[in-house]
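Notes from the 1:1 (GR / supervisor)

We went over the backlog. Supervisor wanted to see one worked example end to end before approving the batch request, so GR pasted a single chain during the call. The sequence is below; no edits were made to it. Supervisor asked that the structure be written out right there so they could see what the output format looks like.
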Amino acid sequence: MVVASIRLLPSPLLSFAPRRSPYSYSWRSHPSLTIPFSSIHSKASTKGDGGAVELGGDQTELIFLGTGTSEGVPRVSCLTNPLLKCEVCSKAAQPGNKNRRLNTSILIRHPNSSGTHNNILIDAGKFFYHSALHWFPAFGIRTIDAVIITHSHADAIGGLDDLRDWTNNVQPHIPIYVAKRDFEFTPLPVWHGQNYRSLGFRFGNICYISDVSDIPEETYPLLKDCEILILDALRPDRSTSTHFGLQRALEEVRKIQPKRTLFTGMMHLMDHEEVNDSLAKLLESEGLDAQLSYDGLRIPIRL
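Structure output shown during the call:
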């Protein structure tokens, strides 16, 4: 067993540590900025992520497992409404349509010295099983080497019970298995409604903020020189008390000035093609490279 660690800087809001239980996961408050984890057993770690998708030796990927709201898209209430047809939900019901969105979640896939990949999951919401069922076999992902939680709502933690499949059948527990020098996750404290703190995370020059209604001034310096910003954008017309709408999200993009922005957490009022066509015009008029993400999107990143 090797003890590795991941550092959450600069705000000591969360700590994650494996524990002996059928579920083998926990999270708690912690005064320290350095969080130790026991690595997975060497036999389990050599299984890697299945090898179905071959990448370059130093290629890191970010995979969008889900890009939707808590209830997901399509909504059952829309598909069963005899009086009003919801165009986005109708499209989302079609196989392979990019309007189909499960709970917001990403997976960072980072190569390791053994020739496989370490997989770090951010959020396991109530639809996590369905996302994993679809994308893990498709992308050859087998192990989960860490789970990081942004906040305690059901769309971020409701799928934690499903991790039993991994701890019972794939690996003995779900820790962080990277060298101390390899990763720094910087918490990005934001507001997700009045007096409710949520966390975004920065890893390398990637900034991920999935649930946000306001960004405190003290968080902006942590967003400096962001290359890829992944940002909450619930609906096209307005913000709510707990989430950015598209226009507010664009205001933040102009303030943060990332090189590229991918919006996430979209509800059924956001038609993928229509909104992206509109956003493409901002690249011509303002130089803003911003688009909606979608479930299953894979992008290469540098860490």
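Supervisor's comment: Residues 69 and 265 are 5 Å apart (CA to CA).
Batch request approved.
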